[in-house]
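Input record (one chain):
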Amino acid sequence: MFRDRFYVSLVLTIPVVLYSGILRTLFGFEPPAFPGSNFVPLVISTFVFFYGGLVFLRGAVSELAARLPGMMTLISLAITVAFVYSVISQVVFGGDTLFWELTTLITVMLLGHWLEMRSTDRAQGALQELAKLLPDDAERINANGTERVSVSELREGDLILVRPGARVPADGEVIEGASSVNESVITGESRPVEKAIGAKVIAGTVNGDGSLKVRVTAIGESTALAGIMRLVAEAQASRSRAQVLADRAAFVLTIVAITAGVITFIAWVAVGKSLGFSIERTVAVLVIACPHALGLAIPLVVAISTTIAARNGLLVRDRRALEAARAIDVVLFDKTGTLTRGEPAVREVISLDGVSERELLTLAASVEAESEHALSRAIVARAKEAGLLPRRVDHFAAVPGKGVRGEIEGELVEVANRGYFAGKLDGNVSEKVKRAEAAETVVFVARRGEIVGAISLADEIRHESKEAIAELRRLGVRVAMVTGDNQAVADAVAEELGIEKVFAEVLPEHKAEIVKRLQRDGSRVAMVGDGVNDAPALTQADVGIAIGAGTDVAIQSAGIILVRNDPRDVLRIIRLSRATYSKMIQNLFWAVGYNVVAIPLAAGILASQGILLAPAVGAIFMSASTIIVAANAQLLRGLKL
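The corresponding structure, as predicted from the sequence alone:
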């Protein structure tokens, strides 16, 4: 709405300026004359006032009704006085008018508000993305088999069938079957979680290779996913209170401007000046005091800095996040998908029975090539990197939740977890394997029923992460890590990256609590994450930063998105934020300083010296201040991140 009104007002302002005489005064330019051309500014300005200015007038009514006069009230007062004065001056007295000042003022303020409002109100988008995690329907088990029903029809105690690759439709307990479930979107755990009879499953998570029969234990608002949605909504609601300070500043500015206008009118009437002169002085004060430059000082800098950010792979969704990034004390990184790639990679190939590592990897990759499991893909990828060619596999079979097996050249080869080889590993595991099992996922390889080796896998650390953390520490910013992984996995990653503060085995609701805990001592916290489980923490943090490859809900919940998935971009955010803040302060200093000098001049404080600032000249000064603010903001484009 602001955008559309801005474009229409901008087009209509051009003929008003052409026929208002300002160009004749400044440059000697005379527009084409025709009968009634002297009424062009009056007619068009009237339309602009009621079309473009209506939004400010309505806003002022709302502010006054709430007894909280602010920016809308001040803008409305300025344009109303300018409009009424100009109409009376032309129609009744045939005197000077402020039509071109009025239309340009409305146009520029529409632009400023449009720029400000583009990146607000993202709560609905985040909650919609969370809701998308639930499937639309489920397979409910009945006496005749299964039936497809809407998720909303499920009730506690129902039995449902969750097929391989399907999303779990409701929280529940496994009563039959075994599988591995990807819970990373909810818990942040990077490794698939094995599920057997009695295990709990969470709505929105993705089933692996096996089928599960589940008894529903929670539906609707009682599910873990619904709880996360409530946390996001609550955190976003709490953020809106930060606008109180801005409202107070607008209130003070409004009172100062109105008071200056009233005092000016009363003072000149009191000293015996005519009513027309007193009104002229009052109009000059209100026009020159209008927050033309002040209204653009912030949004113009933010608009430019947002463009700079986008060119550098930083998408700013919430201007407050960029403003707050300059004063970050702590950066809290989620591990999975942020500092790491969120997918397993082979860390070590361990021979246990004299078999070479290349032979061991070839055997494992040949059998795993038939599987689509994440661990299988990682093993196959490592073999390709080593230039190993897979061998032919016969009689392949997947063992849900445990591993795979097949025959190579007539010999049985099995690649599976410890549970699959129950009883065969006692006394046949080296210390190296035991250390790997403490912090990594380990699969064992058997040939002809004998364990011949093991392969350890772990979530791969991004090579950019170590540099990013080192640079942040050099800037004096503390770095912490939070993850749903177990303590051993978290400590191993933290040690490699040089992170001292680690929060491990953290549930989704506790991530937001950890952000609050870090904030209690007054620290400003930036949360960097990519998963649904990060959404409440991203919103609770002073600055929420989402890795671009993360889920849509994380992006909706964050103020800034890192398109390149590069943790080093957090440093670029801080540099840009500091430069942006500097420009904001410079512009605000000019806008406020300008009013300190201009308002007394417009009021006529130097009238005894023969210096009077006409309303039109005051409007020129007002426009000049805007040009200065705009030019200073443009200098930000030269910033190198």
